[in-house]
Amino acid sequence: MYNEKDIISKWNSEMYDCYETETDDVDFALSVIGLEPKRILEIACGSGRFLVPMAKAGHDITGLDFDEHMLNRISAKISDSQNIHWHKADVINDVWGNGFDIVLLAANFLSNIVSDMDYKQAQELMIQKAAGALVSGGHVLIDYAHTFHPEKWFNNPAPNVVWQGTDSEGNFGKMVLLNSTFDSNSGIIQCIRRFEMVLADRSSLVQELPTRKHFASIEQVRTWLERAGFVIEQEWGDYQGNPISESTNRAIIWAKKK
Ligand SMILES: C[S@@+](CC[C@H](N)C(=O)[O-])C[C@H]1O[C@@H](n2cnc3c(N)ncnc32)[C@H](O)[C@@H]1O
């Protein structure tokens, strides 16, 4: 687990909402799901970037996430909350529920899983748990950052400032990724997430969190889907609807539970 200090988690949740404001992935998912109201489960819903527009479009949507600071930001974004629900849950260890028409494993979650489990196993587990949560004939929508050349994305020792800013309590911070390496045999990405904070009381706080992830190739995801009893119906490489290719940077997969 990453175990960020609480003050950093709260700052991070506010920065997330400031910086992650894109809507093209949400709009694309809505166009795939269609207009008929569906029962949807979003895994790792965060602060509701998918949850809120999906509920506003008439779907009955439930989100799971283990970060309370992210979840606490949802209620301010929606007034009529009949068809939107969220629960604090560790999606690796806790149950997801069942009877859903659609499970969303979107927003790059296959590359953002936090757990103590072997990363590749955790990725496959998410697909297996999606199958368990769906009605038969239901769909999983996977959307993650994909390239045929992960070494170009992830072999990057130079510091990369992901975001910086001041939160509502006057705490300034910077999240920096350092020493990123990619092992092409194992698909393992390693880096350090470093938080550099100057708190409202002028004290400083630095936390470094070594991070280890696995990059899932499209072939691996296809295999995991098949093993979990899914049939892939459509795949796209970007939000313009182009196929996955050398020049696209997403893998968006719509697969049906048999
Ligand atoms: C990049 S954010 C995406 C949030 C949201 N889906 C969106 O599109 O804005 C990733 C989220 O995954 C959550 N997360 C990571 N590992 C998790 C786990 N094991 N259980 C529950 N939530 C997890 C984090 O708390 C975070 O909110």
Structure notes:
- With 258 residues, the chain is α/β, with parallel strands linked by helices.
- The chain has 2 domains: 6-147 and 216-257, Vaccinia Virus protein VP39 (Rossmann fold, 3-Layer(aba) Sandwich), CATH 3.40.50.150; 150-213, N-terminal domain of TfIIb, CATH 2.20.25.
- It is 25% helix and 35% strand.
- The chain contains 7 helices and 11 strands.
- It has helices spanning 6-19, 24-33, 51-56, 68-71, 119-133, 150-154, 218-227, and strands spanning 39-43, 60-65, 84-88, 100-105, 134-145, 160-166, 172-183, 188-198, 204-214, 230-236, 250-257.
- Strands 3-2-1-4-5-11-10 form a 7-stranded mixed sheet, sandwiched between helices.
- The protein is globular and about 55 Å long.
- The two termini are 34 Å apart.
- The mean pLDDT is 96.
- S-adenosylmethionine is lined by residues 20, 44-46, 49-50, 65-67, 70, 90-92, 107, 112-115.
